[in-house]
Amino acid sequence: MKWSLQIVSGSHRFRQSPETKEQDLRTAEPTEMFETRQQGALQGWKNAAASARLSILLVCLVLAPGNVLPADYNSYAIVKEDGSLRVRGRTIWLYGIHIPPTYESCLTFLRPVRCGPHAILVLELKIDPHFVHCREMSRNSDGSINAFCTVEGEDLSAYMLENGWAQALPGAPNEYFAKEKSAREKYLGIWRLLPGDMTREPSAD
């Protein structure tokens, strides 16, 4: 490094020559650039870590009990005697309705003959052999699902109500209560029976 002596106002100062100063700047430049890149990389790592923590938090919130995302179920269904459906290993209740116990009957025109509660046979005939498409509405404490289910685009809850084989539950859509009222006025399904006769097969006359 070269230094030149400069006399200013009676004092002596050493001043770095322009050539040496330029050389020192060139020498220092790689170090400063490295430090800048290092700081940038460190900030990138911090940002990536923060994003990873946020992603983990979101996954935990989604999977936490009570925060299960609603699901769709599309498959064949088994109709159980309590009126629920078994779809892809899940117990599904038709949204907004209750299917009461009804008298036993048999479908002799089918092979093999099917016997069971009449309202359940009505639902079974409506579904078989089609796929059901169910959209989850809510979940029960036992893990079963309340779902809006259709067959070939037709609402199964509405079908059972308008044919008189179900009752609308509190909180159901107004449309469901209207369908139940219409079936009741026409004496369809369970509405043609006295309360004590719902589980007793009606006479032929």
How would you describe this protein?
The protein has four helices and 13 strands. By secondary structure, it is an alpha+beta fold. Strands 3, 4, 5, 6, 10, 11 and 12 form a seven-stranded mixed sheet that branches. It starts with a strand and ends in a 20-residue tail after the last helix. The mean pLDDT is 78. It has helices at 18-63, 118-127, 156-162, 174-185, and strands spanning 3-8, 11-16, 72-75, 78-79, 85-87, 90-94, 97-98, 104-107, 114-117, 132-139, 145-151, 154-155, 167-168. Helix 3 (156-162) packs parallel to helix 4. The protein folds into two domains: 3-63; 72-197, OB fold (Dihydrolipoamide Acetyltransferase, E2P), CATH 2.40.50.90. The longest helix is centred in the first third of the chain and has 46 residues, at 18-63.
Mean pLDDT: 78
What is the CA-based Rg, rounded?
A: 39 Å
The proportion of residues in beta strands is 25-35%
Output the number of helix runs.
Answer: 4
What level of helicity do the residues show?
25-40%
Structural class based on helices, strands and sheet pairing: alpha+beta
Total number of distinct structural domains:
2
Second CATH tier, the architecture of the largest domain? Beta Barrel
One letter per element, helices H and strands E, the order comes to: EEHEEEEEEEHEEEHEH
Distance between the termini: 122 Å
Assign the CATH topology of the largest domain: OB fold (Dihydrolipoamide Acetyltransferase, E2P)
Number of beta-strand segments:
13
Using the coordinates above, name the CATH class of the largest domain. Answer: Mainly Beta
Shape annotation? elongated
Low-confidence stretches: none
Largest sheet: 7 strands, mixed
